[in-house]
């Protein structure tokens, strides 16, 4: 028996998620291809000459170089997932049993169908605040900045240069 992908409340949201991933995979892949082209070839060649295998080059060179791309794609994917309303509107209209009723579709229902602009505005502001907080957490989590500061201090005490030139310049100007 073939399951009713959009009619079963237990799997309808998963069906929408699969469609969204399929739709956006190529878009995100373009960013990763651009990030891969920015990986310096001389560094890759030097690692190869030093005997680094493909997995070591991936772990120590390619993935760290792709970190900004991962952050950008993560933020864009989160924003897209929260604001995805067209598939829900066309395929299920929030059903079955409100299983696919997402935040933006709820805001649409409150504003357009129920004429409750107050609820729609409040939900919009809460969604905006949550998205801003989530974006801030993804872009600069507090543990990363504290760890980077600790590492720079440790390197400064060992006589090695700090990784963050801005922090180092502040330290050197404070010691003058």
Rg is 23 Å
Unreliable spans are: none
CATH class: Mainly Alpha
Looking at this structure, what is the CATH superfamily? MetI-like
Largest sheet: none
Q: What percent strand?
A: under 5%
Number of helices: 9
CATH fold naming: MetI-like fold
Topology order in helix (H) and strand (E) letters: HHHHHHHHH
Mean of residue pLDDT values: 84
Approximate helicity band: over 70%
Structural class: mainly alpha
Distance between the termini: 78 Å
Supply the number of structural domains.
Answer: 1
Number of strands: 0
Shape: elongated
CATH architecture: Orthogonal Bundle
Structure characterization notes:
The chain is mostly helical and 176 residues long. The protein has a single domain, classed as MetI-like fold, CATH 1.10.3720.10. It is elongated and about 65 Å long. It starts with 11 loop residues before the first helix and ends with a helix. The mean pLDDT is 84.
Give a quick set of tags describing it.
176 residues; mainly alpha; MetI-like fold
Quick take:
The protein has 176 residues and is mostly helical. It has helices spanning 12-37, 41-49, 54-65, 67-82, 86-91, 103-113, 117-139, 142-157, 165-175.
